[in-house]
């Protein structure tokens, strides 16, 4: 039963889409429709872009301290309204309430505060005379209007990763959340409106066609997307027609390389925690395990034990570690990949849907996989941990790097020299050692190869939302 109708948020207020089209918003815990979201068209995109362009004229001239203060006040408001945001996020995604409260709200608030501080410390190289009688200086300036598209796995968090650095740098934003998870992003925009001028932060809802209108629109100078490789390639092609700056954070297939000297129990616990979090719907999830010959059997058994002890369920299961997959298409993808497993693969535990209501999938461990298998090469994006057995360090490196993705990886060993060698050799944007998945605002997140380019978080990510201008002044007599 539909109990609410959503609207776009443009120029500081909620507005209906121009032609009244809507799409269902579904609670993944039950599979039931609980809201209607607008499906925006070119006219709606035009209105949002015009609002952003108008707002940019004033926002770019605000001082760093003004932008910083606005974002700090916004962060405080997000913290105060945490319960409302969690309620919106969990019903829209099926995530456990307690984990969303403890594991997503604090970092999101911290990241807004980080970029609020970053606004005041942007630096260029020092001014100087690099030619006689001429003084040169560097200006860092906002880019303009930024078109942004966020995914359904972390709707609230990924929105923060997009709009916070862009706005802190003096840009204006038009952001489209996933059509399946718009609710928390709209709430964030509503909260932000108390502290930002109208038009600085706009949110429009819609489908893939809406996203295409957003990216192809002539107004934005930069487009940023977190999503699939397919979507990223389409965005890059479309943006190239207008030479827009592009920021892509795409898929991942993180290798988790476990050597024979690793502590099996502690490693299995760490991998399960990082593999099953958010039902494995994470581009950095620890779901592709490469185990040494002496540890593979024991580690596989320990991972199966971790899976069997993992509590799952919808919003009515207070101690659940993860909830349902986000949508029926994702459930079908996970079921299909597991169902197509080769004969040499063994489902150690799990491998099935749980119940008929909602999109819950059991925590799963699959062993005996080979490098060319689909589940090794392609993102499953579900609570499925695979295990391969390697023979030596060189083979571990070849297998780890032998996928099209390059986002994140981890190494588990007591040998410091080996850990440092692996950190150098692994072709991934992040390498964790004896841990997996911690992310902090001060450090960059972003990958290589088909995982995209550009960085989220950190000063590196912040600088992506600025442009460099050289100013030279003649000082001779």
What does this structure look like?
- This protein is an alpha/beta fold.
- The radius of gyration is 23 Å and the shape is globular.
- A hairpin with a 2-residue loop joins strand 5 and strand 6.
- The chain has 16 helices and 22 strands.
- It has helices at 42-59, 64-80, 82-93, 97-103, 105-118, 155-168, 183-192, 208-216, 229-240, 264-276, 296-308, 328-339, 374-377, 393-401, 416-425, 458-463, and strands spanning 8-10, 13-15, 22-27, 32-38, 128-131, 134-142, 145-149, 172-176, 201-203, 222-226, 245-249, 255-258, 288-291, 346-349, 364-367, 384-389, 405-406, 408-412, 430-433, 448-449, 452-453, 466-474.
- It has a seven-stranded mixed sheet, with helices on both faces. It has a six-stranded mixed sheet with strand order 9-8-7-10-11-21, with helices on both faces. A three-stranded antiparallel sheet has the order 5-6-22, with no helix packed on it.
- Helix 3 (82-93) runs antiparallel to helix 7.
- The relative contact order is 0.14.
- The chain is 38% helix and 21% strand.
């Amino acid at each position: 039963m539909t109990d609410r109708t959503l609207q776009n948020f443009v120029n500081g207020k909620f507005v209906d889409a121009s032609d009244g089209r809507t799409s269902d918003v579904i609670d993944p815990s039950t599979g039931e429709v609980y809201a209607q979201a607008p499906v925006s068209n070119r006219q709606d995109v035009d209105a949002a872009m015009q609002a952003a362009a108008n707002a940019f004229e004033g926002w770019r001239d605000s001082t760093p301290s003004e932008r910083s203060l606005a974002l700090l006040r916004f962060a405080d408001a997000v913290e105060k309204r945490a319960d409302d945001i969690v309620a919106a996020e969990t019903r829209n995604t099926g995530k456990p309430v307690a984990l969303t409260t403890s594991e997503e709200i604090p970092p999101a608030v911290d990241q807004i505060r980080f970029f609020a501080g970053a606004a005041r410390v942007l630096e260029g190289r020092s001014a100087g005379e690099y030619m006689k009688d001429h003084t040169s200086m560097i200006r860092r300036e906002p880019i303009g209007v930024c078109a942004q598209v966020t995914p359904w796995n972390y709707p609230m968090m990924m929105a923060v990763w997009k709009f916070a650095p862009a706005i802190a740098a003096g840009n204006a934003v038009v952001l489209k959340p996933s059509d399946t998870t718009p609710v928390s992003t709209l709430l964030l925009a509503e909260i932000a409106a108390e502290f930002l001028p109208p038009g600085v932060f706009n949110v429009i809802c819609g489908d893939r066609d809406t996203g295409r209108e957003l990216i192809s629109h002539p107004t934005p100078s930069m487009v940023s997307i977190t999503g699939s490789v397919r979507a990223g390639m389409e965005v890059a092609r479309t943006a190239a027609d207008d030479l827009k700056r592009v920021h892509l954070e795409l898929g991942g297939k993180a290798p988790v390389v476990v050597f024979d000297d690793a502590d099996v129990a502690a490693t299995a616990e760490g991998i399960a925690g990082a593999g099953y979090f958010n039902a494995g719907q994470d581009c950095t999830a620890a779901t592709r395990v490469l185990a040494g010959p002496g540890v593979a059997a024991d580690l596989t058994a320990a991972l199966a034990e971790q899976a069997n002890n993992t509590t799952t369920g919808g919003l009515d299961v207070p101690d659940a570690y993860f909830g349902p997959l986000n949508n029926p298409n994702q459930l079908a993808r996970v079921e299909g990949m597991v169902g197509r497993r080769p004969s040499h693969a063994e489902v150690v535990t799990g491998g099935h849907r749980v119940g008929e209501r909602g999109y819950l999938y059991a925590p799963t461990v699959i062993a005996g996989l080979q490098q060319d298998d689909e589940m090794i090469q392609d993102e499953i994006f579900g609570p499925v941990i695979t295990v391969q057995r390697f023979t030596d360090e060189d083979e571990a490196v070849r297998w780890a790097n032998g996928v099209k993705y390059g986002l994140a990886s981890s190494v588990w060993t007591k040998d410091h020299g080996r850990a440092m060698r692996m950190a150098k050799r692994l072709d991934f944007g992040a390498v964790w050692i004896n841990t997996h998945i911690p992310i902090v605002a001060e450090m960059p997140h972003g990958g290589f190869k088909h995982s995209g380019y550009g960085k989220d978080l950190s000063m590196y990510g912040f600088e992506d939302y600025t442009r460099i201008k050289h100013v030279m002044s003649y000082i001779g007599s």
